[in-house]
Write a structure and sequence with these properties.
By secondary structure, this protein is an alpha/beta fold. It contains eight helices and ten strands. It binds adenosine-5'-triphosphate and magnesium ion.
């Protein structure tokens, strides 16, 4: 199997120089993700899920430890190199879509390709990606002319268009009603069946259960990691105990 990423003793500390502000959001975490896996990251608010996802997506750097992405240590890269690695390896899907409001659906999807000098027919690739998420008919529409679920599908097309090594999703169904959320989840699960590697932060345990593997974070550390059925059940049981 191809290893997409590997973390070894990775920590992320906010404000490491200022003791009274300092927060160890991710604390000596080690794990690996193989190509084709689908991994849910669960845990209580503030446990470090989004911070970890940002480090995985090269939006932020670890404070210490090792991060190998596509076999390459990214911890010491400069800003430009980091942006390049991100563009090649990572497709992001956020809760609030992050589409540019003045660009049409196809222009939004095309955007990550415009940073690549080597790609010629960016428009055709963007249209292909929109077709994959079932939105070929909406290519010229602005985000404001689309439903929430359609906007998230455009965002997924934008994440896919560069053929990244993995999709990183932070609460991708969090802003959607339950039926639309299920549609978006079905699309992600179809992409996973077609070979995509997915790492998803979610509060929704039924969403986490739909992925193969789950990682439970607590205070910046990994409390449990394994088949999603087992880990989600253990997490739910621990929280039921806390609540009672
Ligand atoms: N930019 C920042 N500066 C300082 N501390 C931060 C910053 N961003 C996050 N934190 C802190 O780091 C910890 C982890 O935050 P993070 O956003 O990763 O949690 P989370 O698990 O995603 O929570 P939620 O489920 O509420 O989204 C929290 O204690 C948070 O207050
Ligand atoms: Mg978060």
């Amino acid at each position: 199997m191809t290893r997409v990423l590997e973390l070894d003793g990775l920590s992320k500390v906010y404000h490491p120089e200022t003791p009274e502000l300092s927060v160890r959001a991710v604390d000596r975490v080690s794990f690996a993700v193989e190509a084709g896996e689908s991994l849910a990251i669960i845990g209580p608010s503030g446990c470090g899920k989004s911070t970890l996802l940002q480090v995985l997506g090269c939006l932020d750097r670890p404070t210490s430890g090792r991060y190998l992405l596509g076999g390459r240590d990214v911890a010491g890269l400069g800003d430009d190199e980091l942006a390049l690695v991100r563009n090649v390896h990572v497709g992001f899907v956020f809760q609030s879509f992050h589409l540019l409001p003045r660009l049409s659906a196809v222009e939004n999807v095309e955007l990550p390709l415009l940073y690549r000098a080597t790609v010629d027919d960016t428009r055709a690739l963007a249209l292909d990606a929109l077709a994959r998420v079932g939105l070929a008919q909406r290519a010229r529409h602005l985000p404001s002319e689309l439903s929430g679920g359609q906007r998230q599908r455009v965002a997924i097309a934008r994440a896919l268009v560069t053929r990244p090594s993995m999709l990183l999703c932070d609460e991708p169904t969090g802003a959607l009603d339950s039926r639309t959320g299920e549609e978006v989840l079905a699309l992600l699960s179809q992409l996973h069946d077609e070979g995509a590697t997915i790492v998803m932060v979610t509060h929704d345990l039924s969403v986490a259960r739909a992925l193969q593997r789950a990682m439970w974070m607590k205070d910046g550390r990994i409390e449990d990691d394994g088949p999603s059925e087992r880990v989600v059940a253990a997490f739910a049981a621990a929280h039921a105990r806390e609540a009672s």
